[in-house]
Amino acid sequence: MPQVFTSLFLLIACLFLKQSCYVSAISVEKYLSLSLNEKVALEKFRERVDPILKQNFMKTDAYLIQFLRARHFDGDAAEKMIREMLQWRKDNAIDNMRLENWRDMAQDFHATIDTYDKTGRPVGVIDIYDWDIRQAVLQGNGRRLLRYVIYLVENITTQMYERQELGMNVTQVVVLGNADGFNVIQHGCPLCLPLWIQFIQIVESYYPQALDELIIIDASPAIQVVLEAIRPFLSRTTRDAIKIFGPNRAKWMAYLDDKISKAERRPKYGGTKPPMDY
Ligand SMILES: *[C@@H]1O[C@H](CO)[C@@H](O)[C@H](O)[C@H]1NC(C)=O
Ligand SMILES: *[C@@H]1O[C@H](CO)[C@@H](O)[C@H](O)[C@H]1NC(C)=O
């Protein structure tokens, strides 16, 4: 209980003293191990982009460094990337997404956003088996489905920034999927692939380095077909972040137990958290 109160107190303090909280909670020294050269690059980069950044979470070291790292510390390229991200957010009204009504999507495409790994990273959990992507595309809902998935990404990345504000060392998110029943026709159909590819391009361009791991369990050989098709679109960081487990429960169980407590996982993921009532 005292911990809850401390967090609440910190949250309230942060709401009132926004600026100073950022400075104290997210300092390079505390959060990230950077070489001297990288620190210098980060400070230069901050001076360049600070005038165009309006939201506080974007001004943090943890955020800025992701763009620099994605562009190998090339300041020009990282600035271009930031500008493109801001334009994309504006063109697509990303900041207002949380106010939109997603009930129809949430009922048909099951995902949860209330799981955390042992280090406090938010975990987006996607029940891939019941996502009929093909049907959504055929019904003309492909774009809406993509927007819904971006809404989910926004939710868990925002949760990450909120945790940073509380002083938690959380700079990445995790995605966990159960691919039991994945089939090439429903999920990897030729009509569906552009959706996957667009989604990956969005994540790579506008949420660089935010993914700690993408863990897929109960994967059939069919999912490999899709992964091979999208592999060329992945950055090396993303490729390295993907972990795929077949139906051998013992193997993925040990891996997940190590990373996410059973109490945080729902039964399909080998845990004890009560199932979501969609
Ligand atoms: C994320 O979604 C949950 C459930 O819909 C909601 O309660 C929460 O406020 C959202 N958080 C953010 C940061 O959008
Ligand atoms: C913060 O988390 C990162 C990645 O998990 C880790 O490498 C680093 O040591 C942590 N830093 C602190 C101060 O806990």
Verbal overview:
By secondary structure, the chain is an alpha/beta fold. It has two domains: 2-91, Orthogonal Bundle (Helicase, Ruva Protein, domain 3), CATH 1.10.8; 103-269, CRAL-TRIO lipid binding domain (Phosphatidylinositol Transfer Protein Sec14p, 3-Layer(aba) Sandwich). It is built from 14 helices and five strands. It has a five-stranded mixed sheet with strand order 1-2-3-4-5. Strand 1 (111-116) and strand 2 (122-126) form a beta hairpin. Helix 4 packs across helix 5, helix 4 packs across helix 6 (75-91) and helix 5 (61-70) packs across helix 6. The relative contact order is 0.11. Mean pLDDT is 85; it is low at 1-30. One 2-acetamido-2-deoxy-beta-D-glucopyranose (NAG) is lined by residues 30, 119, 169. One 2-acetamido-2-deoxy-beta-D-glucopyranose binds next to loops.
Topology:
Blueprint (H helix, E strand, L loop, with lengths): L1 H15 L1 H8 L2 H4 L4 H14 L11 H10 L4 H17 L11 H6 L2 E6 L5 E5 L6 H6 L3 H24 L7 E6 L5 H4 L5 H14 L4 E7 L3 H10 L5 H6 E3 L4 H11 L19
Parallel strand pairs: 2-3, 3-4, 4-5
Antiparallel strand pairs: 1-2
Helix pairs in contact: 1-2, 4-5, 4-6, 5-6
Bound molecules: 2-acetamido-2-deoxy-beta-D-glucopyranose (2 copies).
Q: What's the Cα radius of gyration?
A: 19 Å
Percentage of residues in DSSP E strands: 5-15%
- Report the structural category: alpha/beta
Helix content: 40-55%
Bound compounds:
2-acetamido-2-deoxy-beta-D-glucopyranose
Domain CRAL-TRIO: 101-277
Pfam families: CRAL_TRIO
Signal peptide: 1-25
Keywords: Signal
Summarize this, please?
This protein has 278 residues and is of the alpha/beta class. 54% of the residues lie in helices and 10% in strands. The protein has 2 domains: 2-91, N-terminal domain of phosphatidylinositol transfer protein sec14p (Helicase, Ruva Protein, domain 3, Orthogonal Bundle); 103-269, 3-Layer(aba) Sandwich (Phosphatidylinositol Transfer Protein Sec14p).
